[in-house]
Structures are given as structure tokens and as C-alpha cells.
Design goal:
This protein is of the alpha+beta class and 478 residues long. The protein is built from 14 helices and 17 strands. The strands form 4 sheets. Strands 1, 2, 3, 6, 7, 8, 15 and 16 form an 8-stranded mixed beta sheet that branches. A hairpin with a 2-residue loop joins strand 1 and strand 2.
Length: 478
């Protein structure tokens, strides 16, 4: 028995030594020195930029609103005369593709943003009119301020400012402003990407919206974090159909079509897809390890041992649960024609967000095996996307982007991130191995609900920093 206890003690001691040693190998917290911005703005210039953004918000560029897009394009020409006199521009439907030549022999970069916005479902919930572009209480309010006219206008402001100062980009710059990102981007980004691929273009970096600067409390650190999306989840909607006997509601069978469908949905919700810790999410946790207190640093430096504990913690909250697995959400239900008639069929639409490593085939195979025999599944018509590739964090492009992100006023820690929503960036994967998703602005956690929600707004103090960030991107070599 002594020998057994001695062996256990030796094993535990060895484990402690390994944990401490691996934790000690975590590098000390490091912040990159920020370089001066190539553009600096006076208060008057910042105010003028804000007014132009306010005007941009006033164009309701919703799907199908051709006149709004035409008017918005005319406004851009008027608002940015130097950019439109210098850059070439071509249209793809309502989408716009600009090219700024540098005369330098280096790989170009591609900056993305989208013109279209989502509809406003409850205008009465807004403190300011959604399309008024109101400037109030230190914010610019309106649909598109965050998603994504703020980025689009900041990009063009940076081009205009650099041209006004006689500066050129380090390498060629392309700007692609889609018009249908909110409905999949097939006609806008999809066609622009196909044209650029046919022209043989390859980019050192592609940068779109996605992550942002948020408080680091969610990741257990005091410093803000700049979440740079290096991948995004896929998108697939599935229709579940349950069959049942039609008849009078006074003589119900033991299980109706609605009951069968409900049972299937409950099964999916209580037996989610497996959680795993790899790719972007694992890299994110490893990246913030140096800023953790010692106890958490031990955990993050030894995920080989503590992964089940970390997964349990991440799975406990919707925001972080979405980072570790394919998620499902019932979004639409349909059944019945009258209150006293049993429906012959009942249907539900389930929206899945596919984690990297999952695909359409694996998901449908799982559904076929897991669902009751009375319920079948078929893929809904419409938009579909597989999970994106994962861009490397050891590339010079990611490192340079991290430096610029950490130079933002909030002085955040740049970390890789899995975007759980979608973006136009997915259409450009064939054009670059370095596709990133980052909005250079700081928000609070509660602001995330403003994306596609009520009271979308951008702090006035953030906007000049966004313009300066994009100017730094254009004058940097990736």
C-alpha cells in the first residue's frame, strides 16, 4: 500500500511540476508600441466627418430600394471628390468596387464594407428616428451607424484625408462595398469576388466587419480586447416536418403532428452538437493567458488538462456557448388551419450556425439519425454557407493588423476570434489566405444587442479613431 501511495504522490507531484512549468512558459504580457497615425483631425474636421456620416444614415438602403442606393451613390461622389477623382470605380448592381493604385510592386489589400441595412421592426422602441442620423448625447444614432455604414464612410474618409495630404497607399488598395450583405451577399460580394478572381487578383489581406473592441471581463482580464475574427461560422436552415392524422380535435390521438414536432425540437435543444475547443476559440484563450491572474493562467496554459472545465464554463452562457459548437435555434413554426381541426402536418424552421469542422453533410446525417421516425428534415431553400477557413495568426498580415488594433485609443489586447454571425468576407476566401473581420471601434457588452436591434448608435469619439485606423491600414505593408 505504501508503494501505491508513494506512486500516486509522485505522479501528483510530477503533474504539479508540469502545470507550473507550462504556466511559467507563458510569455509576459506584451503590448506593441503604437505608431503615429498618418492622419490627424481638428475638431472642425471631426465634426464635418460626423455630419457626412449622419447624412449617409439618412439613405434607407434596404433590400429592393433602388432609388435609395442611387441617391446614396450620388452623395458619395459629392462627399468625397478627391477619392472619386483618383480611384477607379465600377458597379456590380448596386455594389461598388474601387481601386486605388500605388505604383508599388507589392501585394494589394482589400477592404470591405456593405451599404445595405436591415429593416427596423419596432421604430417605437428607438430613442431617435432610425433614419434621421441624429447627433445627440455624444452619439450618432441610426440604422447603419454600427452595421455597416460607419465602416464604409470611415474607409472613404481615410482615402479622402490621405489624398488631401498628398499621401499614397503602401500597396494597391481595393474597396468593395456590397449592397446585399444582410441577405447573403450573393449578388454583391459574390459577383465582385468572382470578377476579381477572374482577373487573377490575390490580396495580402482582406479586412471586413466582424469582431470589435469589447471589455475583457468575459475573458477574465482587466484590459479591453480587440476581437479580430479569423474565421466565421456557417449558415444552414433546415425544415422539420412531422406527419399526423387530420381529424376533429375532440378525438385526438395519443400524439399529434404538433406534439411530434415539439418532441423533435425539444430533443435537439436538450442534446446539442458536441462542444470542442480548437481553432479560433482555443487560440483566443491562449492569447489572453499572459494577462490572466496566476490561477486562471494555470488553466489557460494547460488546456490539455483543463479543457472539460473550460468547455463547461463557456457552455453556461449563450455568447460563449456559440464559440464552441454548432448551435440551433427554432425560428419559424407552421401548423393547423382551424382551432378545432387536427393538422395533418406541422413544420418548423431550424437555423443552424455551423462551427468550423462541421458541414452540411455531417449535420444532415446527424439529424437523420437523431430525429424520431415521424419527423423528417430537409434543407430550406435560400442562403447557405459552409464555415469559413481559419486564417493563420502567425502571418505577418495578422501581426501587423494586431499592432494597428492595439494602437486604438482603448489600448486593447488583440486576440483571434470566431465570428458567430456572417459577413461578406466569406465570399473572398479564394482571393487571400489572410481574411480578417474587425470593426475598429470600442463598445460595451450591452451595445452588441444594438446590431440589428433598436437604438443602433456610434459614439462620436470613436469615429475619428476609425478613420485613422483605416488610414494606417492603407499606409502599411501587409
Amino acid at each position: 500500500m505504501k508503494a501505491v501511495l508513494s506512486g500516486i504522490g509522485a505522479a501528483l507531484l510530477l503533474l504539479v511540476v508540469v502545470l507550473v512549468a507550462r504556466t511559467a512558459m507563458v510569455p509576459a504580457p506584451e503590448s506593441f508600441p503604437s505608431s503615429p497615425s498618418p492622419v490627424v483631425f481638428s475638431k472642425e474636421q471631426a465634426a464635418a466627418m460626423t455630419q457626412r456620416l449622419s447624412r449617409a444614415i439618412q439613405f434607407p438602403t434596404l433590400a429592393g430600394q433602388a432609388d435609395a442606393f442611387a441617391s446614396f451613390h450620388a452623395f458619395l461622389e459629392q462627399a468625397f471628390p478627391l477619392a472619386h477623382a483618383t480611384l477607379s470605380r465600377q458597379g456590380f448592381g448596386h455594389s461598388l468596387l474601387y481601386h486605388w493604385e500605388s505604383s508599388n510592386d507589392c501585394a494589394p489589400i482589400l477592404l470591405l464594407a456593405h451599404q445595405d441595412v436591415v429593416p427596423v421592426s419596432s421604430p417605437e422602441d428607438w430613442l431617435q428616428a432610425p433614419f434621421a442620423g441624429a447627433i445627440e448625447s455624444g452619439y450618432l444614432w441610426g440604422r447603419g451607424a454600427m452595421d455597416d455604414k460607419g465602416s464604409l464612410m470611415a474607409i472613404l474618409e481615410s482615402v479622402e484625408a490621405l489624398l488631401a495630404q498628398g499621401q499614397s497607399p503602401a500597396c494597391d488598395v481595393w474597396l468593395a462595398f456590397g449592397h446585399d450583405e444582410e441577405v447573403g451577399g450573393v449578388q454583391g460580394a459574390g459577383k465582385m469576388a468572382a470578377w476579381m478572381l477572374s482577373e487573377g487578383l490575390q490580396f495580402a489581406m482582406v479586412l471586413d466587419e466582424g469582431g470589435m473592441v469589447l471589455p475583457g471581463a468575459t475573458l477574465g482580464i482587466d484590459k479591453p480586447v480587440a476581437l479580430i475574427g479569423i474565421a466565421e461560422k456557417g449558415y444552414l436552415s433546415v425544415i422539420l416536418t412531422a406527419q399526423g392524422g387530420a381529424g376533429h380535435s375532440s378525438r385526438p390521438p395519443e400524439q399529434t403532428a404538433i406534439g411530434e414536432l415539439s418532441r423533435a425540437i425539444m430533443m435537439l435543444q436538450t442534446s446539442p452538437r458536441p462542444a470542442f475547443l480548437n481553432g479560433a476559440t482555443r487560440q483566443m484563450l491562449e492569447q489572453v493567458a499572459p494577462w490572466q491572474p496566476w490561477g486562471k493562467r494555470v488553466v489557460f496554459a494547460n488546456l490539455w488538462l483543463f479543457e472539460p472545465l473550460v468547455l463547461q464554463q463557456l457552455a453556461s452562457k449563450p455568447d460563449t456557448n456559440a464559440l464552441i459548437r454548432t448551435t440551433m435555434a427554432p425560428t419559424m413554426l407552421s401548423a393547423g388551419v382551424k382551432d378545432n381541426v387536427l393538422p395533418a402536418t406541422a413544420e418548423a424552421v431550424i437555423n443552424f450556425r455551423l462551427a468550423p469542422g462541421e458541414n452540411r453533410e455531417t449535420l444532415m446525417a446527424w439529424l437523420e439519425e437523431a430525429l424520431p421516425a415521424t419527423v423528417n428534415a430537409r434543407i430550406a431553400e435560400g442562403f447557405f454557407a459552409e464555415p469559413s477557413a481559419i486564417s493563420p495568426v502567425d502571418s505577418s498580415a495578422y501581426q501587423q493588423l494586431s499592432v494597428l488594433a492595439e494602437g486604438l485609443p482603448a489600448a486593447p489586447v488583440a486576440v483571434p476570434f470566431l465570428l458567430i454571425a456572417g459577413s461578406d468576407a466569406r465570399h473572398y476566401e479564394a482571393l487571400s489566405g489572410n481574411v480578417f473581420r474587425f470593426l475598429p471601434a470600442s463598445f460595451e457588452r450591452e451595445d452588441v444587442a444594438r446590431f440589428h436591434g433598436a437604438n443602433e448608435r456610434l459614439a462620436l469619439s470613436q469615429y475619428p479613431a476609425m478613420v485613422a485606423f483605416y488610414a494606417s491600414v492603407m499606409t502599411s505593408a501587409f
